[in-house]
Write a structure and sequence with these properties.
31% of the residues lie in helices and 33% in strands. By secondary structure, the chain is α+β, with helices and mostly antiparallel strands. Strands 1, 2, 3, 4, 5, 6, 7, 8 and 9 form a nine-stranded mixed beta sheet that branches. It is elongated and about 100 Å long.
Amino acid sequence: MSGNETAILQQLAILVVCHGLAVGQISSYYFLLQRPMPWVKAQEFCQKYYVDLAVLTTEEQYFTVLNATPATKVSFWLGLKRQSVSSDWQWVNGEQLGYEHWYRRNYEGCCASLEAMLEKDKNLLARYCKEPHMVVCQGPHSPQLVTVDSVGAEHVNLSWNISAFMQTTPHSYNVTICDSRCETGLYSCTNGSAAMSISISNLTSGTKYFLQISAFVVRPDSVTGGNIILQSNPTTVEVKTVDHGIIFAVLMVIKLMLLAPPLCILYHILKKAGSFEESNHYISPVLLSTEDTVVDLVSQKTPGIG
């Protein structure tokens, strides 16, 4: 494919923002490319200039892209394929097709297209993979559900799962953290990783922060000769660092809990020692009193003897 053809394709790309309607669902970018090519060439192009062919795993995503297609008699390749006519349909990220919106069953074609010319909601059609059709590419996924693993007075640890769609694509994350001002950090992802963990430090204790996490990929731009950045919609997380006073109080409680057993033992030892001394002081006056009585009796008896 020549540089001019690539430039034309990129200029004809239509950006469609697909907002997830279900709780926790990620948002994605879809690009409708207005130039026909075979399915294999379409995937190569999407992987080079975007991330891959479009993956529409939910009906919400399916209808969003369907409603964005122009009302013309065209077909768009999707990232939906089967290995043989007897195999199940799979998206390029390995997920199974989870809904039925086939226009009609075609038991010979192994690549699926989205038919924009059909008026009803059954717009999927199995076609021969060598047929030339227009293309729906997809940009990077937002990070999936972000978990706050731990929060300290000056740091926060976060983690999230990486979708199968993004695991085979080298990408990075922009993490913007804001209180009264905002700072952005860059975190690279190891290719093939299924999860991502980061630690953000140098924070202020007892402060509420808003974090925005976006995935992005760097792709070549044949128009300018440089690179372009494709970035997903951000996932937002709110955290509050622990107050130093609370930490001090907790440490004191822990310290007291650790000191309690030895202090208890020492108390019982001193208590026993004190009881022993009291017993000695009680017996001693009785003995002394008996001795004094004997002495007195001897003193009284002496004159009579003389």
